[in-house]
Amino acid sequence: MAYYWFKAFHIIGVVVWFAGLFYLVRLFIYHVEANEQPEPARSILKNQYEIMEKRLLNIITTPGMIVTVVMAVGLLVTNQELLHEGWLHTKLLFVAVLLFYHHYCVKVMKQLQRNECGWSSKQLRALNEAPTLLLVVIVMLAVFKNSLPTDLTAWVIFGLVILMAATIQLYARKRRLDQEKLMTEATQE
């Protein structure tokens, strides 16, 4: 029974952690874009984004990560045969990349607070796609284990995920260009 408790809370932790990671970098994008605003809006927005980023990281994202990792350890302790599975080793490699991403986001947040961040909003939008790709790979490994499908259906689904990510990027670019156009028109009047 303990295995199922660990598994349930592991899944809850994953959902919370990813929700936080998805929104955190989105806040970074808004934070960087606040630099383009005139004063006093710039200072007000940047201060608000700093507060939101800290709260999101400390109240949601990091606790979600901790619950995920602790429950994963509980799963492995209660079912040690999993440690001999090749798919789990691969999954843990991707989880390690996700942990690095989490800690890199902390570094970016601190750079934003010190006005030392060199990332553009466009670059941050691309960075924001990383957890989506990691989520897809990690979930696929957890579900299919050693029999990860490589047939046409799997490639179609993979293509749809890539198409979705590209569509999001194109929509963000369109919104940005529309906003720039409105700003240009407003300054010409």
Automatic annotation (TrEMBL):
It catalyses: protoporphyrinogen IX + 3 A = protoporphyrin IX + 3 AH2. Pathway: Porphyrin-containing compound metabolism; protoporphyrin-IX biosynthesis; protoporphyrin-IX from protoporphyrinogen-IX: step 1/1. Signal peptide: none annotated. GO terms for molecular function: metal ion binding; protoporphyrinogen oxidase activity. The chain crosses the membrane at residues 6-25, 56-76, 88-106, 126-146, 152-172. It comes from the Bacteria. Heme binds at residues 10, 91. The keyword Kinase does not apply. It is found in: Cell membrane. Its EC number is 1.3.99.-. It is a multi-pass membrane protein. Belongs to the HemJ family. Catalyzes the oxidation of protoporphyrinogen IX to protoporphyrin IX. This is Protoporphyrinogen IX oxidase. It comes from Merismopedia glauca CCAP 1448/3.
